[in-house]
Amino acid sequence: MEKQESTAGMKASNFVLENKGKLKEFYKIGKLIGSGAFGDVRICLHKESNSQRAVKILYKANMTEEDEKMLLNEIDILKDLDHPNIVKMYEFFQDEKRYYIITEICKGGELFDEIIDKGHFSEQDASVIMKQLLSCLNYCHSRNIVHRDIKPENILMESNKDFNQIKVIDFGISVVKEPDQMINESIGTPYYIAPEVWLKNYDEKCDVWSAGVIMYILLSGTPPFNAASDAEMKTKILEGTFSMEGKVWDEVSDDAKDLITQLLTLETDKRISAGDALSHPWIAEHCDPEFDSKLAKNALFNLSKFRAEEKIKQATIAYIASQLLSKKEKESLSSVFKAFDTNGDGMLSKEEIKNGYEKVFGYSINEEQITAMFKAVDLDGSGYLDYSEFVVATMNEKNLFSEKKLKAAFKMFDKDDSGYISGDEVKESLIRIQKFSDDEINEIIGQVDENGDGEISFEEFKIIMTKMNE
């Protein structure tokens, strides 16, 4: 069953926007960490949160009209994605000469380089990588997004080389399609292109084929289809025959070989989906999710106490989730999120939260309790807890609403930097989420404006934000 995000309510992605200011007002630019045909990638420091990020600097003079179209397509898709294994985009800038795309930073290099260094992977390590990749694809496919360029070069590692923290990048040639629509454009990287892509008649299962190629390479160190030219490569892929014979394959389990075969099935209607692949015995056997029991207990305790009835508080939390959480803050809770996300779709259902309680505390919660919890935490009204919703609702309150974060969030509303938030400023900040009438704006102001002067001071703002458990 497909799960679509609600268009109403407060989403972290509402705050992933083009920043009309100058880049250097918000970021300190650091050393070069990569370069390509269109520009460079540098480390940058976000002044407001003091966190390191990456800035991709793209020179317009080096780009064709089609290149710019692809870039804007990537921005449009990436800003709405909220998954622990998809690189997060924070915002973007542009001036007369350049585009600047701000994303989270991954310092461990590409999975491709790790494959070159290691030769091939153990089944344990390979399964951890594949589970995350398949979860990412399942999440995208449930939103009708087809990546179309899944390959080891588009999977980044963290500096600690923890295989449980990979990030999928480069959504430049991704496409959003209707559920029954077929795509008729041949595009991608030859080694990883599915046969139906060569034939220009395909859907999201082309990504599943690419994942199968990656799994084959992880376990053997060589690609399933290899040739001296693209034409010869195309012929081999269209035939769809590959070998799992030889010394390296003698040590690979039958379950692993079975999953590769299902991923690399020529006929798409018989090829396994990303969602079904996640429940394959090979994944289940090797990927029993590990998490810190104390961290999980604290997370569920905070989740049960989370309250955000006021619209301005909901918007503030969404803004903090989108722009102000550090990588460390988010990823400290990612293991708990992944452990609870048993079907690997990148979201938590009521049933998965109930099962999480059972797993952590040895007892479950009733339907009334879970419904009340979701009403408080599910800020976008989708019926599921997104990654960012889960993180902000399970964080320690003092960290979530630290003085520094609250001042940054207040500044987001306080457009004229007067030290007070007016009704017009609230309206301007919330209009990106939904349209509010003047009466509704006055009601929102009234929820926070304790002295009734029609404006919100920082102290009034701070009181309503930290009134979590009342």
TrEMBL record:
PROSITE patterns: EF_HAND_1, EF_HAND_2, PROTEIN_KINASE_ATP, PROTEIN_KINASE_DOM, PROTEIN_KINASE_ST. SUPFAM superfamilies: EF-hand, Protein kinase-like (PK-like). Its EC number is 2.7.11.1. Signal peptide: none annotated. ATP binds at K56. It comes from the Eukaryota. It catalyses: L-seryl-[protein] + ATP = O-phospho-L-seryl-[protein] + ADP + H(+); L-threonyl-[protein] + ATP = O-phospho-L-threonyl-[protein] + ADP + H(+). Its cofactor is Mg(2+). It is a lipid-anchor. It is found in: Cell membrane; Cell projection, Cilium, Flagellum; Host cell membrane; Parasitophorous vacuole membrane. Gene3D superfamilies: EF-hand, Phosphorylase Kinase, domain 1, Transferase(Phosphotransferase) domain 1. Residues 328-363, 365-400, 401-436, 437-470 form the EF-hand domain. Keywords: ATP-binding, Calcium, Cell membrane, Cell projection, Cilium, Flagellum, Host cell membrane, Host membrane, Kinase, Lipoprotein, Membrane, Metal-binding, Myristate, Nucleotide-binding, Palmitate, Repeat, Serine/threonine-protein kinase, Transferase. Residues 27-283 form the Protein kinase domain. One of its GO terms (cellular component) is host cell plasma membrane. GO terms for molecular function: ATP binding; calcium ion binding; protein serine/threonine kinase activity. InterPro entries: CDPK_Ser/Thr_kinases, EF-hand-dom_pair, EF_Hand_1_Ca_BS, EF_hand_dom, Kinase-like_dom_sf, Prot_kinase_dom, Protein_kinase_ATP_BS, Ser/Thr_kinase_AS. Belongs to the protein kinase superfamily. Ser/Thr protein kinase family. CDPK subfamily. Calcium-dependent protein kinase which acts as a sensor and effector of intracellular Ca(2+) levels probably in part downstream of cGMP-activated PKG kinase. During the liver stage, involved in sporozoite motility and thus in sporozoite invasion of host hepatocytes, probably together with CDPK4 and CDPK5. In the mosquito midgut and during the last stage of male gamete exflagellation, may play a role in the rupture of the host erythrocyte membrane. Monomer. This is Calcium-dependent protein kinase 1. It comes from Euplotes crassus.
